[in-house]
Amino acid sequence: MQKKLYMTAGYNTVSLGTGRKEFNPKKERPGIEHYISEAGKGVVKQIGNANKIDETVIGNFMAARFNKQAHLGGFAGLVDDKLEYKPSLSVEGACASGGLSLVSGMRSVLAGTAEVALSLGVEVQNTVKAIYGADILAGAGWYQNRKSGHAYFFPGQFSDRAGVYYEKYGYDYARAGMRQWFVNAIENARLDPDAQEHHNATPDLAGLYDKMKPNGKAFVDHLNVLDCSKVSDGASGILISSEEGLQKLGIDKSQAVEIVGWSQVTRNITKDPVDPVELTTIKKAAEQALEKAGITLDQVATIETHDCFSIAGLLAVEALGLAEKGKGAEYVAAGNTARNGAMPMNTTGGLIGWGHPTGATGVHQAVTIWQQLTGNAGKAQINIPANRPYGMTINMGGDDVTVVAIVYKRG
Amino acid sequence: MTYDERLQQVAVLGAAGKMGSGILLLTAVEMADISLKPENKGKTFVLNAIDLSDEGLAGLMDYLRVQVIKIAEKKTVWLRQMYADRADLVENYEIIDQYVHDVIKLVRPTTAMETAYRSSLVFEAVTENKDLKVKILKQLDENNPNKPWYFTNTSSVPIQIIESEADLTGRVLGFHFYNPPAVQKLVELIVTQKSQPEMKQFALDYAKSLRKVVVPSNDIAGFIGNGHFMRDALYGINQALELAKNRPFYEAVYMINKVSQDFLIRPMGIFQLIDYVGIDVVQFIMKVMNPHMKDEELHSPILDQLMELGVKGGQQSSGVQKDGFLKYEKGTITAVYDINKQVYVAVDEFAASCDQELGELPAGHKPWKAAVRIADKDSHFGPYFEAMKQANNPGAKLAVKYGQNSNAIGRKLVSDGVANQDEDVNTVMLTGFFHAYGPINNYFA
Asked: Most buried residue, A85, A306, A310, A334, by most Cβ within 10 Å?
């Protein structure tokens, strides 16, 4: 990398939606501008003054349909007067929009057009019922496939992947891994007060999971709703800075993470996945990011991966090389990805436990890694061993189409 | 005539009423679903929604639209298959919109009875008045050359009386939905000795398609549901009158309502249930049933008195509960009617002393909401009612007597031949009245 890049001053709003006690679908809720503003102000507060921010990038997927609002760059001035009349833009790459927001800020800092960039991600999805939200989110796939697709389009896509996985490796075997993935997600979410499943008090999560058999008549053939990420309203923000920028902000490196490797790749959206039980794009992105960082996976202390569905969690474990193909279920079922396991993953609940405000998720993942590596994760804090000072995020848009992989190092 | 053909020309009489609107909704959806089958493409389906009230019919169409949207949202997976050949319908909302249109286009709201002269199936849900029902059905049948089948929603009038007085030999049966028909799973099915077997079969198929639980009842006024409810209500009223010998009647009403709800773990107390159904309706049903009852007087002067005072209960068209024996604010009971002074007395003024007099709820008490979900009911209710019998307080004593009376009513319905078996009585009370346990049980045997 031409110069050193850092992230600091992360902030998450609550992930609001079913599961949160304060969520009532019948009552009016804050609009998208509230979330952008809260996340932006939460970041600015940590540096005292927005003067030093040169640029704002807002990751968002479908505000144009969920909220009848495009042109999100125009909301930077709502965060802080001092961001007005400076560069601000929005970026979109489906559920990887947040990741693209990070990448866009990183590019500006690398190019020298900014020393400090504010990266935000936002989505407010509870404006419509899930059955209509499914239409909107289907925009992450190729529109020509919508007609033949499932009513719940994306659950349908990953249900198909899960179906092949069951067929190849065994139903009970696969479900045991997916069940543990769900249990980990909720248990981790309970430790983060902003998580959508923070209030979840179900005593027997595994029992609940087993009771809810997939039912294709009501939902999709091979997944139940516990296998799915949440419908969420939320935003996250973080600063991307050069080394000089960090000095100007007056932030000690111990309160920042260094970006040591990253990769952003896409596959052809008009084609079906090459292999239904492999997340090929994630595989390539992760390999590239680790290679650029010059490290191996055993030096990584924790990973935030894009578990829009439990099966995507298992397949990511395999794509990352933590387990061989077909062994992901076993790896997860054995507790390796739990917070005290060999490779703690999604330590604040991930998309299934923390929530999935689609356009915000990539930024939220970066905030979680920043919290963990700087010791700011509160009750969700895990131990970061001295010989494993790295963290990693995998943010996926669509069905393994756009992927952003980033490797972070304790500052 | 096949099942699908029978449902091509249908009419609902009293379609804008509380029961009629629900029957219309369910039938419209059933007809639309049939019309979407590949073999029925191009066929015309007509559902005449007939009512005297133009205003009611306008409201019906609003209700229909809102409800059909909800139904469509729940079965979009299936609807996508049904509209698979429609290239223009891509997103869920487009498919849901189309389905709503396809349901509503079947429905012809009208005040003109003549539209039913071509129907092959007629649902009757007009006011619970035997003479009115007979008059309408007779006129309709004289003008309809198709020899249609008639499904009456009467909850009390013997079907054979309608059959003979309206000259409908073999072509009428009782198809008694519970309120609200779109939600309640129970249907009481009553045939006469002359009912055509294929009509009964159609009724069973139709109920199955609507996912209703069918309980057969024999053709005795009130059938099973009102056979229990009316006697249970009368018992409650009389118990209150008994208590009122030593205290104001409104306090007695409060106490018996509490005994029948909290002590007996029912979803509503008996006076709230009377209000819910409507004091006018309860009075009317008793009046219809009473001449058919031997050695029994199904009549309450208190109900007559309240009706004269204009205290009727029932619900507004929005579903909001109107005041009756009890006064309601947002569904909560806040006062009880003082029949002597003709004012409502706030519950706060007397509840504490009445509660104290009734005494503690028996050990192991769980409110209805929790109790109804218990899988092994016997293991909960057995010990609970045993504790009730041991408890030496007036509340428990009243409740035991109440439970015993309900048990006796249930058994009498079987011995009188209204119900074929104990289980049918229990199914009606569990499904139609949401009781947590059937009246015919060993707790109060």
From this structure: A310
Q: How many Cα neighbours within 13 Å face the side chain of B222? A: 28
Tell which residue, A132, A123, A129, has the closest CA to residue A92: A123
Radius of gyration of chain A (CA): 20
Nearest residue to A140 via CA among A326, A267, A324: A267
Q: Is the pLDDT of residue A1 over 70?
A: no
Number of domain units in chain B: 2
Domain of residue B144, residue span: 3-216
Tell me whether residue B311 is in a domain: yes
**Are A132 and B80 a contacting pair at CB < 8 A?**
no
- DSSP tally for chain B: helices H, then strands E: 18, 11
A146: which chain B residues are within 8 Å (Cβ-Cβ)? 90-91
Q: Are residues B204 and B333 in the same domain?
A: no
Contact: B77, A151; criterion CB under 8 Å: yes
3-state secondary structure of A11: strand
Domain range A5-129+231-254, CATH class: alpha beta
Helix segments in B1-43, DSSP class H: 3-6, 18-35
Looking at the domain assignment, is residue B441 inside a domain?
no
Nearest CA to A234 out of A343, A365, A131, A326 is that of: A365
Contact A298, A45 (CB under 8 A): no
Band of pLDDT at residue B317, cut at 50, 70 and 90: low
Check: CB of residue B125 under 8 Å from CB of residue B153. yes
Give the distance from residue A135's alpha carbon to the nearest chain B alpha carbon, in angstroms.
6
Summarize pLDDT for A171-199 with one digit per residue, the tens: 999 999 999 999 999 999 999 999 999 99
Same domain, B41 and B63: yes
State the ipTM, two decimals: 0.92
Q: Are residues B29 and B65 in the same domain?
A: yes
Buried b (16+ CB within 10 A) or exposed e, A14-39: bbbbebbeebeeeeeeeebbbbbbbb
**Residues of chain A positioned with their CB less than 8 A from the CB of B80:** 150-151
Q: Is residue B437 part of a domain?
A: no
CATH of the domain at B420: 1.10.1040.10
